[in-house]
Specification:
The complex is a heterodimer. By secondary structure, chain A is α/β, with parallel strands linked by helices. Helix content of chain A is about 35%, strand content about 15%. Chain A is built from 13 helices and 11 strands. In chain A, helix 8 packs antiparallel against helix 9. The N terminus of chain A is likely disordered. Classes of the chains: A alpha/beta, B mainly alpha.
């Protein structure tokens, strides 16, 4: 237990051999094998509800009505060890922890310290220190390091392209459609229509390719129906995204969204609003893993939210906007089965501004580790291009299998 | 040139021209817009709906029935099967009868659909489309959304009674109406926010403040995120808002606004450095006045309006002028709309903005002036294109930049949808005539040439609708 509570220092198990590939060389390898999926958990996920530190002596008192039933009780916490556990609603991804293919980063936060969803999400996605600090997203800038071939790589799953993936590198998007496809002859005419309009031209070129891939890989999508943005849409879309990522010439980097975390009221415990969202999220990830098939071995899924929520319940059985929270790192490439945290504690004096879980780990340290060790991007460029002013957030060693 | 200005008036400020509109508008594009503000028409499509109050009552009645059915189901279901996450769950799902709530959701859906259809119909038929645009803008500014199923039937009534009557009135009055509406009080969780030192709070130590509405009121509705408030201000605002609630749905008048002194947090509050004495529901009214007059609010609203009607990155000069007009007129929204019409920046680039999916669909139907496809089908189309009525993804509302709406797949879906519409229309309307009545004043020669040389009427029509000139405004 103690080693996990103070894990950063205990993480000397390096994997230096994987770092610092040459961009050009690295690309061929990534394009062939490695996959990275970013899941943006919009709305501010309560990390203490998702991954309860049930062994913390202050846990029960701090959480009050939101404290989860102990392991072994009805709808009790799924224990990961004697300190950490999973909300019972995360049962679909519990096997990934057993098999060492999932880990949690806890008491983690972006550099953002205010409590606006929209600014918080902007910082999570733009990769700078401030809201609107960049018009492009960190993942797009990461792709830009691969050079021209990177255009094959990026896919947004859903109706829009999240800021994380927006930028100079053209990316595709895909959402299931009930609409009839276009006659092939029309594509040339549309090109003529859009000549000179960069926005329309780029969207058309990427859209045509994405639809071709989706048609070839997924077949008829009409039965899927249009998707709302709620969490259960994630559960339905994630397995389809997995098929696209598994395709031989499919994308290698994808961004998805999972909504429904803004639990101000009636949050519930192992049942209720929060549990429904957790279950949909876990079901989606599990479906993604299955549909990736053998490619799961080469995959890292990172799920992160803009901020956490208050440690104590508010007056309406929910939680208000907070600071630190949990993030998930999952996939066959992950050295998992553990929780990584420098645990700040839940006693009143240990809380951030007397109300929130205190941040002790910079999310960028994990993101940089994934980019460096999984996507084999040069560490130097990560600090310069992808996450400016992040030198003090050193990439965490040992997150991935050597 | 006059036709280009008419194109801007009809699209930038409107919902797209109907046949004959451009020529009519060209005589005096600004005058055409000003006239709409002087004599807004109440949409006939909305007049056909039951009054908002009736819809609100019906919604709460339906919700009550659903809850009672659920309770009843729970009574009939063995306890072990009610707890998710247990070992029994997987098996239990198969044996528990399908919840009657699933059947009862249909009437709620009908309630929502009736509002969604009427709203879409109103946009298509409107002779004063600038007014409809303003309704949509302010409704989006004060988003309530069916993403929160618990208010699904309230979003239409909210727009009809809290937004529409005020779009040419004062901002403070709109804000007041918004904060008294059950849709907002429930969407942002204020209805059950309880002052810990109130009568009810001292008896129920588990209950307390919910700061959701307090925060969004400052961040989204008034000052803006950089408006200079702190976490302490959010908490003060939330304390002031305690008591702003609704009559419990089971009682007569259920769902109506009700200030409940029993749950109001007593004592003085300090908001933005100003101290407010304990004043019950007067506190929020005083705060509304102060917030509505705050320079940060003026700037925030001016910037949003300029982004919506001028450019994704609005010119600073236009924002300053709008903010000045807002302050000078004490938040007169009609004066703001007139200032937008007068802004030279709005009349320079006819294709600066990209239409939202809603306005793309509405403008296509207006352009063809045909008996519609079933309005229900249109609402379904909006859903397919990612903008179902009243379904914004968050309290921040729908986004307002081209990049937000023109993801690759989103563009493909628009073109495909336009193609399907064109196939239905090709025998009835001519692509040349539609092009003439819509995009001709601003169309690039290459666009007209591509349309002219396309193979067959359906393809021609698809290309008109797919053109950047039709999709931009």
């Amino acid at each position: 237990m103690l080693s996990r509570r103070d894990l950063l220092s205990g993480m000397a198990l390096g994997c230096g051999g994987l770092a610092l590939g040459l961009p050009g060389v690295a690309f061929a390898r990534i394009a062939g094998e490695r996959r990275f999926v970013l899941v943006i958990l919009r709305g501010g996920m309560d990390g203490l509800a998702a991954v309860p530190p049930y062994g913390d002596p202050d846990y029960r008192e701090a959480r009050g009505p939101l404290a989860l039933a102990a392991p072994g009780e009805v709808a009790g916490i799924i224990p990961l060890d004697r300190f950490w556990g999973l909300n019972a609603a995360l049962e679909p991804i519990a096997p990934l922890f057993k098999s060492g293919e999932a880990l949690v980063l806890h008491a983690v936060a972006t550099p953002y310290r205010e409590r606006s969803h929209f600014d918080g999400q902007d910082v999570l996605e733009n990769g700078t220190l401030t809201p609107h600090g960049s018009e492009s997203g960190w993942l797009n800038r990461a792709l830009s390091l691969y050079g021209p071939e990177s255009a094959q790589s990026g896919l947004a799953v859903g109706q829009g392209v999240p800021l994380a993936l927006r930028g100079a590198v053209p990316v595709k998007s895909w959402a299931p459609s009930q609409l009839p496809g276009l006659p092939p002859a029309m594509i040339g005419e549309l090109r003529a229509l859009y000549g000179g309009d960069r926005l329309f031209t780029m969207a058309l070129e990427e859209g045509v390719q994405a639809e071709a891939l989706a048609d070839a890989t997924l077949g008829d999508q009409r039965a899927m129906g249009p998707q709302g943005p709620q969490a259960n849409a994630f559960a339905k879309l994630a397995p389809e995204a997995g098929k696209l990522l598994a395709a031989e010439r499919g994308p290698r980097v994808a961004v998805m969204e999972c909504l429904g975390w803004d639990t101000h009221q009636g949050q519930g415990t192992a049942a209720g609003r929060m549990a429904d969202t957790l279950k949909a999220f876990a079901t989606g990830v599990s479906g993604l893993a299955q549909s990736l098939g053998p490619s799961w071995k080469e995959t890292v899924v990172l799920a992160a939210t803009e901020f956490g929520r208050t440690v104590r319940a508010n007056g309406t059985g929910g939680t208000d906007h907070g600071t630190a929270t949990a993030a998930f790192l999952m996939g066959g490439a992950v050295q998992g089965g553990r929780v990584i945290a420098r645990w700040p504690g839940l006693a009143e004096r240990q809380l951030y501004q007397g109300r929130d879980l205190a941040p002790t780990l910079d999310l960028r340290a994990a993101l940089k580790a994934v980019l460096r060790d999984h996507l084999e991007l040069p560490a130097e460029a990560l600090d310069r291009v992808v996450f400016p002013q992040s030198a003090q957030a050193k990439p965490l060693d040992g997150l991935l299998r050597a | 040139m006059a036709l280009e200005q008419a194109f801007i008036a009809a699209n930038r400020f409107g919902l797209g021209p109907r046949p004959g509109d451009l020529r009519r508008i060209a005589a005096d594009p600004r005058g055409w817009l000003r006239q709409q503000l002087a004599a807004p028409q109440y949409p006939a499509a909305l007049a056909g709906l039951p009054p908002p109050r009736v819809q609100v009552e019906r919604f709460f009645a339906l919700r009550r029935e659903i809850q009672e059915e659920r309770k009843d189901l729970a009574r009939r279901t063995p306890v072990a099967m009610q707890r998710p996450g247990t070992m029994a769950e997987a098996g239990a799902e198969a044996t528990v009868p399908k919840a009657p709530a699933a059947g009862l959701a249909a009437p709620v859906r009908e309630l929502y659909l009736a509002e969604a259809i009427a709203r879409t119909r109103a946009a298509i038929d409107s002779p004063t489309p600038l007014v409809e645009r303003l309704v949509a803008f302010w409704s989006n500014h004060f988003t309530v959304s069916i993403q929160r199923a618990a208010i699904a039937g309230l979003c239409g009534p909210f727009e009809r009674e809290a937004i529409r009557p005020h779009v040419l009135g004062r901002f403070a009055e709109m804000l007041n109406a918004v904060l008294r509406h059950p849709a907002m009080l429930l969407y942002l969780d204020n209805a059950r926010s309880i002052g810990p030192n109130s009568l009810a709070g001292t008896r129920n130590p588990d209950k307390g403040i919910n700061e959701n509405l307090g925060r969004e009121l400052l961040e989204l509705h008034t000052l803006g995120v950089n408006g200079g408030y702190t976490q302490k201000d959010v908490e003060a605002m939330a304390r002031m808002l305690t008591g702003w609630s609704i009559v419990p749905p089971a009682q007569p008048g259920g769902g109506d606004f009700h200030f409940a002194p029993r749950i109001h947090e007593p004592g003085p509050k300090t908001l933005l450095g100003v101290s407010y004495r304990e004043g019950g529901m007067e506190e929020v009214q005083a705060a509304i006045s102060a917030l509505a007059r705050h320079p940060a609010t003026a700037h925030h609203l001016a910037e949003k309006l300029a982004r919506h009607f001028i450019a994704d990155d609005p010119p600073a000069a236009a924002v300053s002028r709008l903010a000045a007009v807002y302050q000078r007129s004490d938040g007169d929204l009609a004066a703001l709309a007139r200032e937008l019409i007068d802004a030279p920046e709005a009349w320079r680039d006819p294709l600066a903005k990209v239409k939202t999916p809603n306005d793309f669909v509405v403008s296509l139907v207006r352009a063809t002036a045909l008996s519609l496809p079933e309005p229900r089908v249109l609402v379904q189309s909006l859903r397919v294109l990612g903008q179902a009525p009243f379904a914004a993804p968050s309290p921040a509302g729908w986004p307002d930049r081209a990049a937000d709406w023109l993801a690759p797949e989103a563009l493909m879906h628009r073109i495909e949808w336009a193609g399907a519409a064109a196939h239905r229309l090709a025998g009835v309307v001519s692509a040349d005539a539609i092009a003439e009545e819509t995009i001709a004043p601003v169309a690039a020669p290459a666009t007209l040439k591509t349309v002219a040389s396309a193979d067959g009427p359906a393809a021609k029509l698809t290309l008109v609708f797919a053109s950047r000139e039709f999709q931009r405004r």
